[in-house]
Design a protein that fits this description.
Layout (H helix, E strand, L loop, with lengths): L12 E7 L9 E4 L3 E10 L5 E9 L6 E4 L1 E4 L2 E7 L5 E10 L1 H14 L5 H17 L2 H15 L4 H8 L2 H9 L7 E2 L3 E6 L6 E5 L15 H15 L3 E4 L47 H13 L3 E6 L2 E2 L4 H5 L15 E3 L2 E3 L3 E2 L7 H18 L3 E5 L6 H14 L4 E5 L4 H10 L3 E2 L9 H13 L27 H14 L2 E5 L35 H15 L9 E3 L7 E7 L5 E7 L6 E6 L2 H4 L6 E6 L5 E5 L2 E6 L6 E9 L1
Parallel strand pairs: 2-10, 11-12, 11-21, 12-13, 13-18, 18-19, 19-20
Antiparallel strand pairs: 1-3, 3-7, 4-5, 4-8, 6-7, 8-9, 8-10, 14-17, 15-16, 22-23, 23-24, 24-29, 25-28, 26-27, 26-29
Helix pairs in contact: 1-2, 2-3, 6-7, 9-10, 13-14
Amino acid sequence: MGIPKPIQGQNRVIIEKITPQLDGGRFAVKAFVGDTINVEGDVFLDGHDLLAVRLLHKKTKDRNWTESAMSFIGNDRYAASFSVDTNCQYQYTIESWVDHSASWQHEIKAKIKDNQHVNIELLVGALILDKMAKIAAKEDKKPIQNAAKIFRDSTHYDEAVAFSLSDTMKEWISQYPDKQNVTQHPPLKLWVDREKAAFSAWYSVFPRSAASRNGQHGTFKDVEANVLPRMKSLGFDVLYIPPIHPIGTQFRKGKNNTTNALPDDVGVPYGIGSELGGHTAILPELGTLDDLKHLISVCKSMDIELAMDLAIQCSPDHPWAKSHPEWFKVRPDGTIQYAENPPKKYQDIYPVNFESENWVELWEELKNTILTWGKWGVRIIRVDNPHTKAFGFWEWVIAEVQEVYPDMIFLAEAFTKPKVMQQLAKLGYTHSYTYYTWRNTKAELIEYMNELTQTDQQYYMRPNFWPNTHDILPYSLQGGLEPMFLIRYFMAATLSSNYGTFSPVFEAMVKDAYPGKEEYSHSEKYEVKWWDWTFENKLTHLIRTVNRVRQENSALQRTNNITFCDINNDQLLAYLKTHQNGNQILSIVNLDAYNKQNGVVKVPLNLIGKHPDEEFIVHDLISGAKYFWKGEYNYIDLDPHIMPMHLFRIEGNY
């Protein structure tokens, strides 16, 4: 049969290997408002003609493209960039065509240099100018027509030759291209988020544990009175709260996840739903919907945002279990299958069945839940266990919600397999929980950060680092060592521009674990706690200081701008972050919570703009001390029992 002829058989240009892109354009690359998108691509053709290569970009909803010339950077590769200024979806692509006009100028230049007569070439140039005149701006039209006359007049040969090589001719060729047989790469997608997606500090609390007096059930008003002032003082700007809906009573879990709840046990907030309502209802003990809206308003007045928890699961008492039993797995005996992750059993939870024959209505109901929260004023959603729900649903619902609320941020709480976490990020999740909680050694930390920031993951995987969560007390913190809490906090807040802590448990350095597990003993998931919202210690001092430094130094407000520095001690980790405005932050951490460590750090002088014989100041923004360094190699000594890290800002010359 042979190979079929191409539809555009006159097109000679090949465009491939465009960066950035994800899976051949299947998914959108991610950026932030204010970012510059650097685009490169391989563009080539047969023969020796010259190419015109253009970068096109636009907001997806706009009709017209913005066009800019791409620069040749070698080996048939071209580059250009564009800036984004709106929280929305963009498109970008590369187009190219054989630039017969530029090829003509290149050819005539070579022939003139060889002392060849170019009468015919000038006549060809006149035809090129004729085409230009048809599309030229009013002020250029007459000069172009005059130049064409000169090209056709043999008595002005020398003048025509000189003009054919002039910068003016070159500018006209670029400004008024003869676009024939244009090859355009299929458009690629870019999603641009607001600044909060780039830089945030999350503070996680259970509102029911926010009461002023021990023994009372906390309310939204208690959160306003106690939690907000503390987190504001510490420098956090996102308040994350677990589900706030009515809690079921059937199979309610007791303290420490016991299966037989006592009459005074309050249950797990993730056992969502009762006769009082489901995912759009409020637990009465916390307050009313008006109280929640007031909390959201007060947060906003303090430059804090409220993040709510979306757990797509139901207690046996949830209204959906009665009105839509087909949304769940029904066993042969007619009962609904509760959640299991063998050997674990969650008798108080019904997982939603995404293979339901009534899946369309299920999807719409879940979307409407999120949109309802959006109407309340919620713009950040932490999603519980998204990896146990259908990928297709997430791609659809995130796009649907962001069509209405483009500023909605989604955090995927998915501690699961790497490819599953990556797929969720590609599908649209703004932030992702990560493996940071279990990366402890220098080699592990460097390998993981390079994976996140130096591979294709830099285009879509936005890490949100947490040293602990209400579900996880890692073994590294179960020893209760103050230096370890300082170390794990500091790295979360300086390696990643987005981070969070489950507090005040973390601030109090609680270390009591359920035997043999990475879980808190007597966890707040199962009972109401009481906290002194005024206590201070060394860790709260560090948190307050680091959050202030993060606000004041733009280098710490991004994640992918990291470079690890050589340092001759496996217990010392050094990393540099730089920003285009000149801000430069060098963090050095002693990973050994027991012993003093010292070493020599190699500062990448090329990245900080210093020469080998130049003295400069490194200002420790934690202690306030200033040191005078010179050249690449400088000595470090860190005692974990004093302060196990330096947070240096590289400042002017000594």
